[in-house]
Each structure stands twice: as structure tokens, then as C-alpha cells.
Amino acid sequence: MSLLSDLLNHMPPNVAGAGKPPMAKRTPDRPRLVLVEPVQLPSGPYANAANATPEWRQARDQYISHVMTCRCCYAPAGRHCLIGTELRDTYDNTPMEAHS
Questions:
Q1: DSSP H helix total and E strand total for the chain
Q2: Domain carrying residue 90
Q3: Which end of the chain has a smaller Cβ tally under 10 Å, C or N?
Q4: Cα–Cα distance, 18 to 74 (Å, whole number)
Q5: What are the tens digits of pLDDT across the range 1-14?
Q6: Residue 80, in any domain of the structure
Q7: Is residue 28 in a domain?
């Protein structure tokens, strides 16, 4: 017999949901996710980078290239250096779609 099989022989069997209290006994004041404001979707049915304006693609590429190489910028936390902040503002304010 192996050491692992000896250990497994002395363990109690798993019972599904054994460690969870029933739904009625769970605390009702658990935080819930709520959508605070509606999300503004792009007006066009196929708004994506493939058919975006060249200005938007250039702003996106400059921002991403900077963030990926800059040691001061950390985009997931919204932390940017001065250049990264300017590039992010340009990226955010450049329209993705050409307005006719």
C-alpha cells in the first residue's frame, strides 16, 4: 500500500454542500451587485476597432504602447504618469465613429 492510499482510507467521504448553511439561514444583508447607471452603448450596430476611425486607432495604439512600457503606469488601477494621463485623455475623448 502506498502512503497516499493510507491517507485516503482514513478520510471521511465528501458530502455535497456539507459546509454550507441552507439558503434560509444565510444572512439576508449580503451585499448585492446593482447597476447604478445604465451603460451607454455605441450608437452603431458594429462599433469595433476594425471599423473605427483612424484617429481613434492611433490614440488607442499610442496609449497602449505607452502603458505597456512605462514603469509608472498601471492601467488596471487607473494610475498613470503625466504622459500616460495625457494619452488616456486623448484616447477617451477621440470619437470611435465618424459622425456624418
A1: 3, 0
A2: 50-95
A3: C
A4: 42
A5: 577 777 777 776 66
A6: yes
A7: no
Nearest 5°: the CA angle 31, 33, 39 is: 155
Grid cell listed for 35: 447597476
Report the alpha-carbon distance of residue 71 to residue 90 in Å, rounded: 20
Give how many domains the chain has, as a whole number.
1
The residues, ordered by sequence, that sit 6+ positions from 96 with a Cβ below 8 Å of its Cβ are 42, 47, 52, 53, 56
In a domain, residue 38? The reply is no
Model pTM score: 0.53
Q: What cell was used for 78?
A: 487607473
| Residue 33: strand pairing partners | none
29 within some domain: no
